[in-house]
Design a protein that fits this description.
heterodimer; A: alpha/beta; Rossmann fold; five-stranded parallel β-sheet; 44% helix; B: alpha+beta; Beta-Lactamase; Helix Hairpins; 4 domains; six-stranded antiparallel β-sheet; five-stranded mixed β-sheet; 12 helices; 20% strand; elongated
Chain lengths: 127, 448
């Protein structure tokens, strides 16, 4: 997955660090944000191929971030993976409405996350 | 005698019974005879003519006696039945009174309608809720007295469907004054199993719903707070196991992160447990004579590094004076740290936090106040700011929290140390949180 860019947004600095490290170690370019508002700005500037975002963040929440991104021309179809520590935070209806590719519960395995990022990117390339 | 030639009017015979025998006629009471005579209007001269005809008179008298006896028995029977009826009416009145008393004593709103949806009975809470006088509602149509159309419809539906104990959750009110009610509607059946009425009971569950929602939010918050450090511990452990830490420096960094996150997890669990223990009275308290100023000084030192990350100045204006209190040092320290931590958390970058401590000799207390230049709290939320799980909605996005910190402060200050917590705030300008503890010499409680 060379040259693919990932935006990682989470207000927990350690989570951002470990996810960024895992993805970079596997050939991805990574940009990060520690709140929803900055994540949106960086998304518009950097145009990532995929977004990995936390559910709850200061500024815009994960859901609000995705809603704003989907409403921005050119970003309607950028794949999104959501990380959440809140169990059933995102129901199937919301997932479909916002076109969230995957929801992963915290605590998560970095290996598993990497696997999901690769498979989602592959699916979006094919389609 | 000329009297024999006449058909004697039956009533004249009565007169003779008075003259022939002064004794009662086969049990007939003389007073009863007199009463009959009076009723019949018999005059004195007739008595003389009949006097000599004792035999005819006695036959006639016997006939009258029997007739009178029957009349008397009937009257007696009627009297008895009347007494029974009066007793039954009294009993029914008492039962009605008792039933009404039961309904009036219920604190929930209760209304009873008949088979035509007219109001039969309602208690005071119902009158207050629906806005009518309970003494003036009998047999008035329900829809005229109750403006809540949804409820009127549900009562009518219950009656037609003959349902018992159907539960509905209804909301009444507008804007910020919406109340939720648990409404149970049940048909009343007569001896022939026909619906003769409907009873509706409305129980206000607004507070229960709020508590339930707060609990759900709390569980969600706590789950998030617990899982976040756990996520770091899990992720970094896996990276170490998979050899993704390239060098010693990175590995040491990972170990430190795992350790700090484990400590964070532990603190949260302790907070939850402490609140629970304080509430149940099971907490172990170790009180000793301590100086409040020294506790404040140590707490300020601890918070300065956190404050520095946001370029917030923390100023300690506590003078060292005689401010000895009899307190658990660790608990009071926890109180000051929690208040300082909140002050820094909800103050934007570059702000200021000031700590002030004073001795109030008139009240015999030590008063510690922590003032910030933060986001402030809306006035309507101040009364609940120390409630368990409560978080100011407007400030949710500024910082994370479980809603436990201030509750723990309140529990420690008031329940364990018989002190008092207080707060003032202005949105956009900042907040002042504080607490008072009794000085050693005082030994009296501030909690009212």
């Amino acid at each position: 997955m060379e040259n693919k860019k990932v935006l990682v947004a989470d207000d927990e600095v350690h989570i951002v660090q470990v996810v960024a490290m895992k993805l970079r170690n596997n050939g991805f370019e990574v940009v990060t944000a520690d709140n929803g508002s900055d994540a949106y700005k960086i998304c518009c500037e950097e145009k990532p191929d995929i977004i990995v975002t936390d559910y709850q963040m200061p500024g815009l929440t994960g859901i609000e971030l995705i809603e704003k991104i989907r409403g921005t021309p050119g970003f309607e179809n950028v794949p999104v993976i959501m990380l959440t520590a809140r169990g059933f935070a995102v129901d199937d209806e919301q997932k479909e409405k916002l076109n969230i590719a995957e929801c992963l519960s915290k605590p998560f395995s970095p290996k598993e996350l990497l696997s999901h990022v690769e498979s989602v990117l592959q699916s979006s390339t094919v389609s | 005698m000329f009297v024999k030639r006449y058909i004697l009017p039956i009533q004249l015979v009565l007169i003779c019974s008075l003259l022939i025998a002064a004794v009662p006629f086969g049990g007939t009471n003389l007073y009863e005879i007199l009463a009959c005579l009076a009723a019949l209007g018999v005059t004195g001269w007739m008595v003389w003519y009949l006097f000599m005809e004792g035999k005819a008179i006695s036959v006639q008298a016997e006939s009258l006696k029997n007739d009178y006896k029957n009349q008397r028995d009937k009257a007696s029977q009627c009297s008895k039945e009347t007494k029974d009826l009066r007793l039954q009416v009294q009993l029914l009145k008492r039962q009605k009174h008792n039933t009404e008393a039961i309904i009036y004593s219920i604190s929930d709103a209760v209304i009873v309608t008949d088979a035509n949806d007219r109001l039969l009975m309602a208690n005071e809470p119902a009158g207050e809720f629906f806005g009518f006088d309970v003494k003036e509602i009998v047999l008035k149509p329900l829809e005229e007295l109750v403006a809540k159309k949804e409820l009127v419809k549900l009562i009518a539906n219950s009656r037609t469907t003959r349902m018992r104990h159907v539960r509905h959750e209804l909301q009444f009110g507008t804007g910020n004054d919406i109340h939720t009610y648990d409404c149970i509607i049940s048909c009343i059946f007569d001896e022939d199993e026909q619906v003769c009425g409907v009873v509706a009971v409305l129980h206000d569950i607004t507070r229960e719903k709020e508590i339930s929602q707060m609990k759900n939010e709390f569980v969600s918050h706590v789950s998030h707070e617990l899982k976040t450090p756990l996520a770091s511990i899990t992720a970094y452990s896996e990276m170490l196991v998979d050899g993704e830490a390239a060098d010693d420096k990175t590995r040491k960094e990972f170990y430190a992160i795992i350790q700090s996150q484990a400590q964070r997890l532990n603190r949260l669990i302790e907070d939850i447990l402490n609140i629970s223990r304080i509430e149940s009275g099971l907490i172990k308290v170790k009180k000793e004579h301590v100086s409040t100023a020294l506790i404040v000084r140590d707490a300020v030192q601890m918070i300065k590094s956190y404050a520095a990350e946001k370029e917030i100045t923390v100023e300690d204006q506590t003078a060292i004076v005689f401010d000895q209190v009899n307190a658990d040092k660790d608990m009071v320290s926890q109180v000051v740290i929690n208040l300082l931590s909140n002050a820094v958390k909800y103050t934007p970058n570059g702000g200021k936090v000031t700590v002030n401590s004073e001795v109030d000799e008139s009240q015999q207390v030590v008063r510690v106040t922590i003032t910030d230049t933060g986001v402030g709290i809306p006035a309507e939320e101040l009364p609940r700011i120390f409630d368990k799980f409560y978080r100011v909605k407007a400030n949710n996005k500024c910082a994370k929290g479980t809603g436990l910190g201030l509750n723990l402060v309140k529990q420690i200050v008031e329940k364990v140390h018989q002190g008092r917590v207080f707060v003032t705030s202005e949105v956009g300008k900042g907040s002042s949180f504080g607490f008072e503890l009794p000085l050693i010499a005082a030994g009296k409680s501030l909690v009212k």
